[in-house]
Amino acid sequence: MNPITNTDYVTILPELVLAAFGLIVMLVEPFVTKGGSRKPLGYLACLGALASLAATWYQAGSPYTQGFFKMVLVDHFSVFFHVVIALVLFVALLGSLDYVERQHIRAGEFYALMLFGAVGMDLMSSATELVLIFIALEISSISTYILAGMRRRVAISAEASLKYFLLGSFATGFFLYGVSLMFGATGTTSILAIGPQLHAGGFNPLVFAAVALMFVGLGFKIASAPFHVWTPDVYEGAPAPVVAFMSTAPKAAAFAVLLRVLFAAWTPGWFWPVWISAALSMTLGNIGALRQTNIKRMLAYSSIAHAGYLLVAFAASKAADTAGISAAIFYTAAYAAMNVGAFLVISHLAGEGERFVAIDDYAGLSRRQPAVAASLALLLLSLIGIPATGGFFAKFYVFSAALQANLVGLTILGLINSGIAAYYYLRVIVVMYMREHPAEHEHGHGAERITIPEGVALTLSVLATLYLGIMPNRVLQLAIEAAKDLLR
Amino acid sequence: MMHTVLFIIFAVVCVAAAINLLAQRHPINSALSLIVVMGSLALLYLLLGAEFVAAVQIIIYAGAIMVLFVFTIMLLNAGEEELSKSSRVAIVFGVPAVAVIVAALAYILSRGAGTAALGDFIGGPKEIGRLLFRDFLLPFEVTSVLILIAIMGAVVLARREER
Amino acid sequence: MTTNLHLWLIPLLPLAGAALNGLLGRGLSKRAVAIIGVGFPGAAFAWALVVASRFVALPFERIPYTEYILPWIAAGSFQANIAFYLDQLSLVMLLVVTGVGLLIHVYSVGYMEHEGGYYRFFAYLNLFMFFMLMLILADNYLLMFVGWEGVGLASYLLIGFFFLKQSAANAGKKAFIVNRVGDFGFLLGMFLLIRHFDSLNFADVFKAVSHYPVETAGAGLLTAISLLLMVGATGKSAQLPLYVWLPDAMEGPTPVSALIHAATMVTAGIYMIARSNPLFSRSPIALTVVAVIGCLTAIFAATIGMTQTDIKRVLAYSTISQLGYMFMACGVAAYSAGIFHLMTHAFFKALLFLCAGSVIHALSGEQDMRRMGGLRKQIPWTFWTMTAGTFAIAGFPPLAGFFSKDEILWKAWSTTALRSVAGPALNYTLWTLALLTAGLTSFYMFRLWFLTFFGEFRGGSADAHGHGDAHASHSPHESPGIMLGPLVLLAILSVFGGWAGVPHALGGSNRFDQFLAPVIQSSSEAMSAGQRAGEPQPEAAEEHAERNAELALTAASVGVAAIGFGFAWLFYFKRRDLPARVTAVLGGIYDTVRDKYYVDELYHALFVRPIVGISNFFWRDIDVGVIDATVNGAAHASQDVSDSLRRMQSGNIRSYAGWIATGAALVIVYMIWLGAR
User: Fold this and answer.
1) Global pTM?
2) Domain end: C564, C594, C624, which one?
3) Residues C483, C389 share a domain
4) ipTM
């Protein structure tokens, strides 16, 4: 009798689909005409992203099924993150089609790595076994290390890749050591088995050390202070569409793991580390962003700040209360929607060799490319948290939950921070709309029209941001369902 | 008792070799230190009753991988490393921080060991095989994706870019 | 029969106008743009009138009328919908905003004629109307907040309308950032409401609040919520200490100043407080704070207004001062008086701004009053309408400003709503300062009037730029009819608009107060009988005494207005050498006031500099310091990884690892301490 049934395969269907498409992309690459356009590979990869979305859709029909000897769990939680990851992947792939050609990046490996990376991220959100989570985390991390270094003609890209790799391995070491201590303390690495054991109380104090170590490792992946130091350098050096991808999808997956470890496994003692990390991330991120002249670095700091807001929701989560957790889940989706779009605009405007990434290069954009400027303005307003955008509701839920949980200090700090943040996002809008570019009339500067795939990607991101801002209820309900499943 | 004494001896050797690995300026010396680290680790596994893992450790790490390392170093004819710029932050904060981490973990480990007793997990090939191809089948299979990515990374990053 | 008012039409019409002009306007003729830009708000006003006529006929139990549009969000038991809420208060606001707004739109057709980006201007203006109407009609705080932020955004777009003008861009940014401070309070207030009432719906919250006692003993929950909401209101309504953005906002085109920064948006804070009156009335402490802030703002801004020479800045400080009056009215629990003043102020201040715009238009962009003078003859229509506005704001009977201001002064004198916090001394102080402000208002407005329209023309023919170079610099000329029409209508409203609320003491019946009473009353029931905030109901004999007192106070306020006029006449008409001499005598004091008490500089030193300093430290010493070392080192565009890696200095990788290790050590030590306890 075969102990692995069809149900088991369904639980990893999206991952299977992505891996299959990754292989197909690699196999097809040699057959694409030499010197010709590499776009067909990109479209194939996009198809893979959509297929994984469809596979997730299929999974959603039978939520809460376990597979592979309780290694993975398909529930509303995993489905939510699978959808976010698949959509981000799709949008980022669409946005990279022209970029890859423009920057002469090896297309086959690029697309395949994106797809394989997504396999790891998907597994991170559905795995309930720390060993599997670790392997998935490594897949996701290593593929992003390589992707960060794919601008082979540019030194800072290689530098970014190496920095990310060395520091990332350092952080992964912490996570792995945490897993092994957890096993030492509880005799199991299954989150679903750890939970009841810890809940029963009277556990080994080693658990605290294990949680601390895992928190350090995951803190690095989500770029929360004080483990954020790598972010600006890596985002600056990595190819812009890769940043669009890696600042959202692996981060969402890492947040999913953190949610599982902290809440599904019912681990103790995380409150103050999360509190302090949230406060530090918000403050250091926003202060760091204020004076940046490079838009990629600015958004890197902004992403640190957003990780901080997200951690506020973590701190606001209490047992048997879904408010904080669902706020965090909603925030992940909203943040993914707006940030992916913002980096795609950067990728579109960067030009060959990413020469135009200074904020000053955006001067007069509203006249050169009104639609792109308007999209970026909207995404930045969403990052500020202006109503009618996803960013507003995300912050609203988070801080509302924080105040419900009596985190007065953190709420006030967060609101002050989002006030400071308005300044630097606004600066970009001011530059785009109210300043003239000295070389405005020169030919060839950023005059390339947006291509159709880029346009579609940007539109999707803008629409998602608006959807989450105007009609947030549906996604919020899904987030609440996900939170309920997580605590089940 | 005997076990404990042996364990301490090999643990000390392991740590000393690891430090030596970092301290050596010539790559070949570092590689040789690494072999010592791997070897003593294998012995530690053996002392813990994980015979299979110990054997695998010797065959794969000390054997295959280290041979590859040494060959690569020889073929590339790598010379002495230059010392790169040091960092004030690392010396002022980093090194003490690492010391503190080690001390704190040592403290908590000495206070209360894990609940598992030695011998609870007999690491024979049969048990390992059953775990690996049944309960942990998925992680085992997924590792292939990891390896594939690692190979691709090596290819992508090491290949000389055509102009 | 159930009447459906179709309230959704009112905000949607301007939105449609904005969308049409914004998306298609580039290809349309100016005429078509103007028709769209004015037509849609016009239709909204027309529908608002229909709504008003139907509303009056609604049976009592259907007020407040709510119109449910869409479900919006639900989290747990908390729910907020997209729904509209119409009661007497929102109806008044609705008519003021659509009516005055429409007139200003019409005026803009002429004023912006020669400016570029005509379609964009109207698109933004209509967008502003949409958000403002959402703010007014919202049935919960969250939807109100959407409008609240939206008007801020539209205002930001419109201040920065003169693109490529650095000062305008900075002013827009300043307005936005300062308002974020206010939003901070508003949001916290909302979070507290959710936490304790699990709702943001006005009806639910006010019903829940009605079970709470008045917090006379000390500060409680309602005081906290009220004070936080008040912080939001001080931002939007430009009160101390957050008023600093409004004078700078005058960088925008004059119709924008009239619409947003005088008549509508800045009154949103007043509206919000009046809307939240059940909360505020239960917190004497919050009321006192509101009253004191309003009163101080009124006199503070009035003193600055006396020294400014830019015609729009005088009006800006005057607006802040008048908003202070409204704030104070809310603070003494005389919400209807505050809204009454809001309405009359919308009339005469919009008029004054539009007249100022007409003057600026006539002088081809000149805004400095020192370079004006004697314009009475050249632009008679502007002169006469502005005269109506000036007398109205100065508080001469029987013009609009007289009645509303008088009502506030009387309430400040007579209210007992603050008794649990302070004795009658507070009333007298508030009243005295407010009276003094009235005198100052009269002085600086007539100063403006004399400087602009009387004496000799001091402008010369030196060309002045700023408001479009399209106007050739020739002698002053009257504005076209499309600009004068709104002036005349607003002048009529400024003259007669106050008759809606003639107080009892002057033989009227104060219909305005009675109309709003249902909105306010529900809360003033919280006050013990006889202590009613809305309308004191004393015994017959006392009534007689009160009436005499009220008449005496009225006489006093008319008196100070006349004195203000007298001084202005003396200084700026009769003895024109006097101002210079007085200035010389006052010396440093005068300079301090003229330089706006150095508040901007103070804020800069207190808030901006430290943040920028810290940021610089992070940027220059940590970020750039580390990065430059590596990036420049590797900047020689090496083509191979091996090359670049060799060149790369790994110093900062070590630093980064050091930081991570430090953080990790802190987390681990803390957790182990926790575990070992």
Assistant:
1) 0.89
2) C594
3) yes
4) 0.92
